[in-house]
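Data card: per-record layout.
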Amino acid sequence: MTKKRNNQKLGGVRGRVEKAIASRPGKRRKKGIARGAVSELRSAVDAVKGRVMTRDAKRSEAAKKAARTRKRNAEKRSAAARKGARTRARAGSR
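The structure for this 94-residue chain is written out next.
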């Protein structure tokens, strides 16, 4: 495991991976596990980077559709509120 500053515990993914590797017996086995962990972490980084850095067409289209739906529902609520206000105004004037 890496050296800890002032006896602080390592947290997050890095700390968990280091603990898992350090707890295994045997030096050769640790090297293989470390290589596997590194490759898995790199693939996870690539996946996250792909989501964050590049636009996903499906997600973008879904977001636009959701925005249209919210706008349509807001218009329905607004129309219903206007209709109710007109009804209450007519009932009050009689």
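Known properties of this structure: Residues 57-93 form the longest helix (37 residues). Helices lie at 12-22, 27-53, 57-93.

See the next section for split statistics.
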